[in-house]
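Lecture notes, unit on protein representations.

Consider one protein chain, 293 amino acids long.
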Amino acid sequence: MVESFLRYISYEKRYSQHTVKSYQNDLNQFEHYAQQNFNISGLEQVTQLMIRSWVLSLMDEGNSSRSVNRKIASLRSYFKFLLKREMVSKDPTQKIKSLKVKKELPGFANEQEFSDFLDRLVYDDSLEGKTEQVILELLYGTGIRLSELIGLKVSDFKPSESTIKVLGKRNKERIIPVSRSLSQLLKNLITEKNHVFSHDQGSYLIVNKNGGQAYPMMIYRIVKKYLTQVPSLDKKSPHALRHTFATHLLNKGADLNAVKDLLGHSSLAATQVYTHNSLEKLKSVFDQAHPKA
């Protein structure tokens, strides 16, 4: 049943490979817990009590509220799928409530510090070096998500227009402009990639050492390798560069709706969190400069 659900969200819902893997891990984890602790033989035997017990065990293990909520959401989607296909007669997740999550402001790098950091970076003059440079510059220069970066095709880059076409969540496409310098880096990368891999290795823009499609852990390793040089960033991750991109735009006076479209958010509420970062900066300036602060 789990395999049928995974095929559904992969091929019909068009979820990213990363998301599908997360669903698989969550569902396998619950299935193992239910079998070990309640000795069930089928999903129709799952009850609200079992799910609540699982949630409590996850919290006891030190999982964050956000992480537990994601697992609950995975289970909720799974049983909704089973109910629609009449594989179960009831949905045991119906009265399971999500945990309260403390809102945290997205972490971002100091603007001047990050600019200096980018200026002093030196990359190896090889396909690997060019790939690493493009990864950093694309994540910070466009604010795209990790899954969107991995899914970029060579054909998504339009040199004549200096744009990239990104396939975002729920299979929604958006066009993002790139700077002249980033456009040149992309051209250099494509030229080098074609030189190194003379035979057809697929059409992905970012590839691994063997010419295959990049994968999340590869991107994480590269980003962390460089971001360790940025003290103002608490989290050294691709998502931190997305936060930094949005915050720096708003600090420079960018329109909130424009930033929303660039990030691929479905609602303005998701983008407004970045205005808090800008407000914190204003408060800091006030505290340092105003005589009555």
